[in-house]
Amino acid sequence: MYSFKAYLMRWLAQTTAIAPYTYPLIMPYLRASGIAAAKQCIGGDNGRTCGLSWTSGKWDGTQGVGQEMAAMSAIFVNLLPLQRVGAPVTNATGGTSQGNPSAGAKSIEFSDYSIVHTKDKAGAGVLTAVVIIGITSMFTWMSTGK
Question: I need a labelling partner for 27 at 20 to 30 A (CA). Which of 5, 73, 91, 133 fits?
Fold first, then answer.
């Protein structure tokens, strides 16, 4: 629960890279959050523990991985370039990659496959049964602890 602020910070920072027109709107908030987060990371026994409430400028008394991650993300996203970076390049805006829906492989037609025989179906059935029995056994063992 405490790490949601971290995710939001990172997503907002990524938004400015994907949609550069959002940079002037989002970055002032991210900068202010980074400064506020750094100012309140003064708590705990070591004097460096971060909390989650950044508005007061003082440590709020909470500590944990989520709080540290949120404060780190607030500071980290401010390391983005000060200048706006252009949007990712597409094929229409100068990209050079050529699409290939077959991922570079030769096209395989349905007629290239051999006919499925009864022994193939039997083998697939046995293999499926072994996998289902294995998974069921594993979950039973994990649930009972025996």
Answer: 91
Q: What is the pLDDT along the chain (146 residues), one digit of tens a residue?
A: 788 988 999 999 988 888 888 889 999 999 999 999 988 888 888 888 888 888 887 888 888 888 889 889 999 888 876 556 666 777 788 777 777 666 767 665 655 567 888 998 999 999 999 999 999 999 999 998 66
Which residues touch 141 (CB under 8 Å, ≥6 apart)? none
Q: What is the pTM of this model?
A: 0.55
Task: List the domain boundaries for the chain.
Answer: 4-83, 114-144
Q: Quick check: helix, strand or coil at residue 76? A: helix
- What is the Rg, in whole angstroms, of the alpha carbon atoms belonging to the chain? 27
